[in-house]
Design brief:
Layout: E1 10-15, H1 22-35, E2 40-44, H2 45-53, H3 63-67, H4 69-83, E3 92-96, H5 102-114, E4 118-123, H6 129-140
Parallel strand pairs: 1-3, 1-4, 2-3
């Protein structure tokens, strides 16, 4: 993944379904930015959910995680607004979240515009979408035999 920053203040939003590699890419991008001397931070919707549940053992497919999704997005947006302002002024803010809803993406764009940050959206493709949804269905039935770990702590 190659991301060229035009502005010293940029938000990179990673978009993709669960299992598409968003967290892995976020870590790689964060390490690269820090190696270049940039102030960089990852904001993860899964981490915000765990923070609200007061338990970091939850897997991102655990049903409890979905119950706090709206509040987690609010917490993530609050953290984002802090990192956009002085004295933090992060050079690179990496958002690790699904970003499937247009109105949620627009909130990020509006906040970035307000603080003169660029926004880059990176869409991560999942190569075997059929297996993803078949596995999700098996978990509902209690028959998960695949490499995916839906609904487990």
């Amino acid at each position: 993944m190659i991301v060229k920053l035009k502005n010293l203040h940029t938000i990179v939003t990673l978009i993709g379904i669960s299992g598409s590699g968003k967290s892995t890419k976020a870590e790689q991008l964060n390490e690269l930015a820090k190696s270049k001397g940039l102030k960089s931070v990852i904001l993860s919707s899964d981490d915000c959910r765990r923070e609200l549940l007061l338990d970091d053992r939850y897997h991102h497919h655990d049903p409890e995680m979905t119950h706090v999704s709206d509040k987690a997005f609010g917490l993530l947006m609050h953290k984002l607004s802090l990192y956009l302002k002085w004295p933090y002024n992060a050079n690179l803010i990496i958002l690790d979240m699904m970003n499937l809803y247009k109105e949620d993406r627009q909130k990020i764009i509006d906040l970035a515009d307000k603080h003169c940050y660029d926004v880059i959206a990176v869409v991560l493709d999942y190569s075997n979408i059929e297996e993803y949804f078949e596995t999700k269905e098996k978990v509902k039935e209690g028959k998960n035999q695949s490499n995916f770990a839906f609904g487990q702590r």
